[in-house]
Amino acid sequence: MTGIVPAPISAEYPEGAAPFRLDDTTRLLVSGDGAAGVAETFAAMARRSTGFELPVVVDGSEGGEPAASDVVFVVADGEAPDGVAEGYTLESGDGGVRLASDTPAGLFRATQSLRQLLPAEIERADAATQPAGGWTVPAASVADAPRFAYRGSMLDVARHFFPVEDVLEHIDRIALLKLNVLHLHLTDDQGWRIRVDSWPELTVAGAATSVGGDGGGFYTKEDYRRIVEYAAERFVTVVPEVDLPGHTNAALHAYPELNCDGVAPSAYEGVEVGFSSLCAAPARAEATDRFLADVLGELAEMTPGPWLHVGGDESLATSEADYLDLVRRITAAGAATGKTLIGWHEMGASRELPAGTVGQYWDFVTPREDAAQLTTSFVEQGGSVILSPADVAYLDMKYPDDPDGPIGTKPGQLWADGPTTLEEAYGWEPTAIVPGLAEGDILGVEAPVWTETIATTPDLEFMVFPRIAAVAEIAWSPAPSAEALASARPSAEGGARDVDDFHARLAALGTHLDELGVAFRRVGGVPWV
Ligand code: TNX
């Protein structure tokens, strides 16, 4: 079974052509800035599972002439299709493999296609057993580039905490799907999960518990640095979110001076939203503004990427006037760090957003109430939009007909028109959601997983996979043709995209997920092996 998820722009597998064989003579020949690092990341995985040496050698150096068993890694101008950032080509056959891009990031994406074309055993942690037919790659010619620049996975580590090792595994798996952003929802009512040196109680009193009292946790700065570095090796940017001014009970619990009445509320272990708020009153302005400057300043220091997410959603306990005042102060403190800010679409209520502020849309595929206007407000103010429509892209929505019984026996929520099928997650078109948003206004697409009902790693994997692959394909793969869009099937049947083809490629991906030990949901309709 051959196929790549997300679907490339073009992929040809010439019938009858001899495959490439990776063996104990294979070398990784590199040329161009950054190629060696990408080859080393690939080698670190492939050495474990194959047991081969796979030396990284500079192409053209002494003895560095490509042989038929070699994989060539090229970074050079003019290699990416149409010069699109992160674009690449992959050629394989009995003469060798050649991966090429204009950028190291594009070359890394090429390695993730190669990873999927190799036997699934490539994912194993040791070389104890080898694939029966050897380490073959079908003869292939792939030209590829992403549709959207921002392709994200959001992990809520506030409602339930997930340790560093779990986050690193998650990063490796989203990289396999060519996602390039990990958005960490680091703070919420139930917990504050990132150390801030200037406000240490945030991760003492503020991190002691989680939903249901399932235990606390937080990332030290060293933990966070490991996450950022591991992600960077996979060309994944970490976007930290501190959710403000609502969703702040953990901070209000840790610091009485942030509360209007000066009294710290109890820690919160429930699943309600919209009851907490920073205090807008002048009496608390000094503490609140110092908090904002310190927290966002330290967060920016820990963040090599360009974005800081400041939340802004569901501030139902904040009056409209206070919300606008606090958003002005939050975004001023955020912009002072030099980062570009991202906020949930409610923040579009402000007409004083810093230049370039990105709105993250979380309403439904068909916008309700004022969600569309709030979202276009970001574009009107010179920013762009990330789309995370909750009824198709929220990975915490239940799947239908849980295998173990009726809905309700497995983790997940229903509020966003759930349950959500794999085909619904696959059957939407980013330009067809918020009227007035053009392709160029859309920075990208993100699939959040909220963890009120998800307390363990197997449950997390069950909810995330395989639907995240559907969202990854919407984010990466070419837009359906105008004809396909015009005659699209209902979104429940996959919309304008070819569901059967997706299912077949997903089954191939499933063999890799199995080898990785991912406890994914074996959704009906997919020919899983
Ligand atoms: C809505 S939509 C939330 C989160 C919840 C999630 C549960 C949005 C930006 N916020 O606070 O965790 O629903 O599905």
Question: Please, could you describe this protein's structure?
Answer:
- This protein has 529 residues and is α/β, with parallel strands linked by helices.
- The protein has 2 domains: 10-144, 2-Layer Sandwich (Chitobiase, domain 2), CATH 3.30.379.10; 150-516, Glycosidases (TIM Barrel).
- The protein is 29% helix and 16% strand.
- It is built from 14 helices and 19 strands.
- An 8-stranded parallel beta barrel has the order 10-11-14-15-16-17-18-19, surrounded by 6 helices.
- Residues 273, 313-314, 344, 362, 390, 394, 396, 413, 450, 452 line the site of ligand TNX.
SSE blueprint:
Elements: E1 10-12, E2 20-22, E3 28-31, H1 35-50, E4 56-58, E5 71-75, E6 88-93, E7 96-101, H2 104-117, E8 135-137, E9 140-144, E10 150-156, H3 164-176, E11 181-185, E12 187-188, E13 191-192, H4 221-233, E14 237-244, H5 249-254, H6 285-301, E15 307-311, H7 320-335, E16 340-344, E17 358-361, H8 371-380, E18 385-387, H9 390-393, H10 422-426, E19 442-449, H11 457-464, H12 467-476, H13 482-486, H14 499-516
Parallel strand pairs: 3-4, 3-5, 5-7, 10-11, 10-19, 11-14, 14-15, 15-16, 16-17, 17-18, 18-19
Antiparallel strand pairs: 1-9, 2-8, 6-7, 6-9, 12-13
Helix pairs in contact: 1-2, 3-4, 6-7
Bound molecules: ligand TNX.
